[in-house]
Design a protein that fits this description.
It contains nine helices and no strands. The longest helix is centred in the middle third of the chain and has 32 residues. Helices cover about 80% and strands about 0% of the residues. The protein is mainly α. The protein folds into two domains: about 140 residues, no CATH class; about 45 residues, no CATH class.
Amino acid sequence: MIFLKLFIIFTKIGTFNFGGGYAMLSLIHNEVVVKNAWLSNAEFTDIVAISQSTPGPIGINAATYAGYVAVLNQGYPEWAAVLGSVLASLSIVWLPFIIMILISRYLMTHKDSKIVKDVFAGLRPAIIGLIAAAAVLLMNKENFGDWRTEPMTFGISVALFAATFYFTRFRKANPILVMLICGVAGLLIF
C-alpha cells in the first residue's frame, strides 16, 4: 500500500538526513523516482522548482508535493493524493522533532565537548556531499536540454548556469535579481 510506503520512506528520509532541505532532495529523488518510480525526472524537477518558490522549508515542501503526485500517479483519486501529501509532510518531521527534543538538552550542555565537536566535524563533509548530489541530480536534460538533440538550448542553459554561479558567488549579486533576469532571459530566448 502506497500510504504505508510513504510513511516509512519519508520517516527514514527525515530521520537520517543532515544538512537541511537541499540535502534531502537527493534522498527524496532516490526513493520516489529511482526506487519506486512514482514520479518521472521531469515531475521531480517541477516539484523542486515549486518547493523553492513556495514559503516554507524546501524539504518539507518537496515531501508534500512528492506525496501528492506519487499517490495521484498511482491512480488514486485527488482526495487520496491530498492525504498522501499530508502523510509525507508529517512523516518527514515527526521523528526528527522528537529526537531533537530528546537530545537538545544534552547538546546544549555538552556543545563544547570534543566528542560533540568531532561528530559535527564529521557530518559537515557529508552534508556538503548531499547538497552537491542534489545539485548534480538537477543537472539533467529536463533542466538543461540534451546536448545531442538540442545543442542551442543546452548551450544557453549552461551559459545561464555559469553566469548565475559567477554573479552570485563572486560578485555577491542579489539572488532574487539574478533569478528575475534569468527568468526574463528564458522568456525571451526559449
